[in-house]
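Hey, I'm writing a tutorial for new members on how sequence and structure tokens pair up, and I'd like a real worked example in the thread rather than a made-up one. If someone can provide the structure for the chain below, I'll link this post from the tutorial.
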Amino acid sequence: PSAMFDWFKPSVRHQRQNRQRAERALQKAQANEHRGDEDLRQAYQALKSKAGVDLVQAQALLEMVAIAGRRHLGFWAHVEQLEGALALIEGNVVEMRTGEGKTFVAVFAAAWHALSKSGVHVVTANAYLVERDAHEMAPVYQALGLSVGCVLPEQTAAAKQAAYACDVTYGTSTEFGFDRLRDQLVDRPEEQVQRGQFAAVVDEVDGLLIDEARTPLVVSGSAQPAKNTYARFHALAQRFDHTGPTPHFEVDEKSRRVELTEAGLELAEQAFAEWGSEANGSVYDPQNLDWFHHLDLALKAKALLKRDVDYVVLDGKVQLVDVHTGRIQADRRWDHGLYQAVETAEGLEPSEETTLQASISVQQYFAGYQHLCGMTGTAATEREEFGDIYGLNV
């Protein structure tokens, strides 16, 4: 087997069987390259009509997608890609390095789960990749008679409903999570945009499900300023250090996040307990999620966002700076209280804030899928966490 699967060994015999299935599927695909899209659509629909789809039918699906890929993308899948696709179909985490065709491999797993007609979510890292991957892979899906859409931050509710109504929907983890939270807040079921959480195929699954697992997704609403809250957490943030020998938090400039260390967690929990937390101060307890959110904001205002780089203070107001152009964006604000946290850090009165209406962690959101699988460049080190938290084999 390829080095790509050196550590992927649920059983040697099963791995060998999957390798043989992948080889047979590719051989049949190359021998039947002449099959037209209408033939592929009919064959795919025939799979849909059968109950209890198994790996024999999965092999047939691999053949169909491989033919569609050759015709519409201009290349044949490699045996290793088909072997990885089978592992995804079985609900595993698969190691695939950059350049080994993860975007295409995701199509196999998405098409498999689309047999259910319940909607499949393909999760990518950012909005650019969402649009790119959905656009580039659309001809392959369409060859099987599947519709594909993507969800983006600027879309209307109607546009999102249409995207989620597709067989396969591309989006980021935050967009999927926020849409779920917003659906919980609407008054009528017909106003909801999502159809539920049936299946998800996740790219860079280690970064999302492990590194960002506890990141809170928060939906906020308008409210009157809570000046004491921001001042309280600004003062608390001054007790947190990120430069000393035992830092309380780390700053990730690339992902624009701050993350508490073990020392920081202890300090936060001590402070929360002092404030009368009924959850023994636990930072991630749902009762304390609003406090944790405000602490996260205060730490970002302290150490992540930089004056005269990310924002300027003009005429007593915080004004954002476009980091790409250097231009001041007077009509923009950061969401979810971050703007008010920066105002407080600058010694200004916080303007009208937004209050927490619904929240969920990334881990809680993805644990809600009936079927979950993913790809990564380095998953072996997180093998135990994938199994314990999400029931995923690596």
